[in-house]
């Protein structure tokens, strides 16, 4: 299939928004703010930015090089760059990783849809105990959360079958600006509350006393998950980039958007939480238990504003999740479409059915069927740990080693410099990072995750 038959993004803006859409997701809202607040505020943010520069951007550019060079799905792309088919294994691993992530990510995305409808109908209103019971009753229901998760995958499917320009690019051009505007509105509402300054201070005041080696490793892991590295997602999107796309500049722009949105998410959560004296945490309990309480308390004297803020918040979360699930779905769809020669619609159904199954099992494992567990944890937690702690770091490590050490130097240079049309001063810096810095740091995260350092 030629480059033009495959379809491509139609504009530079489309490329940036779609790829940033993959990066901006639930990870930005429920993980980054808490980590920053806990680990030294601005000191953590500075370290995080260092990690993005050292590891994130070189890692992204490497996936972009593999994808854009071959203009094909991830499995073929990894085989093509060096001409040795064995390297396709990294692509296959990325496809499997992204499908597993999509399966369990959709469960949480489905919860966001339920909370969106609940906040619209006003059924989230109640005291702290009520909100907590609401979450546990809903998430352990055998049917409702499963249906919401499947509904989320079907919405993703619907975008995917409309193709690259008409589906992914069009959706990203609508969803990303909407997400940004909603975030600004919510940041303003949160920062205007009495006592909000304490929350801003918690997030932004630098406290270098809290920084230790653990904080460095946490920042690295977060940078890596947030940029969707190691799942072949960036490689698949880059296969739709044009020849003239500047890979380094695009990676920097996407990293900036992702980081700004993560910091804004903190400015949305902490001022409101501190204003009512509720201590924020991370993960599902932050967005499904803590925040509904925060919104109710913070806007107790203006219930209409509380209602609007709560609805907008769940719209925002659902949009952030959707722009990420679209990217995860595309990886498998491109593969089945091109390798098994199925029409795109049918290829998308294979991904939808497989990920739907993972979604059903994950959802039941944290609710109605706790017997569904593996290695001492619920299936959902198992899939989460398997992908975030194992498959993603290994995928990113192998990509850097492959591009840095095994792929033909000339091809890598040509892709980086757009066949010599861009200045190549940064190329040596990039190559150094990808050959030495990234593999060493990713190995450190990996060892840290297994408690070996
Ligand atoms: N980067 C997304 C987030 O921060 O929520 C998560 C993600 C998206 C992981 C796409 C992997 C992926 F392929």
From TrEMBL:
Keyword DNA damage set for record: no
Membrane topology value: Multi-pass membrane protein
SUPFAM superfamilies (alphabetical): SNF-like
Keyword Aminoacyl-tRNA synthetase among UniProt keywords: no
Keywords from the UniProt entry: Membrane, Symport, Transmembrane, Transmembrane helix, Transport
Membrane spanning residue stretches: 12-30, 42-66, 87-111, 146-164, 176-196, 216-242, 254-278, 298-326, 347-366, 386-407, 427-447
InterPro entries in UniProt: Na/ntran_symport, SNS_sf, YocR/YhdH-like
Pfam families for the chain: SNF
Compartments reported by the entry: Membrane
Family according to the record: Belongs to the sodium:neurotransmitter symporter (SNF) (TC 2.A.22) family.
Cross-referenced PANTHER family: TRANSPORTER (PTHR42948)
Protein name per the record: Transporter
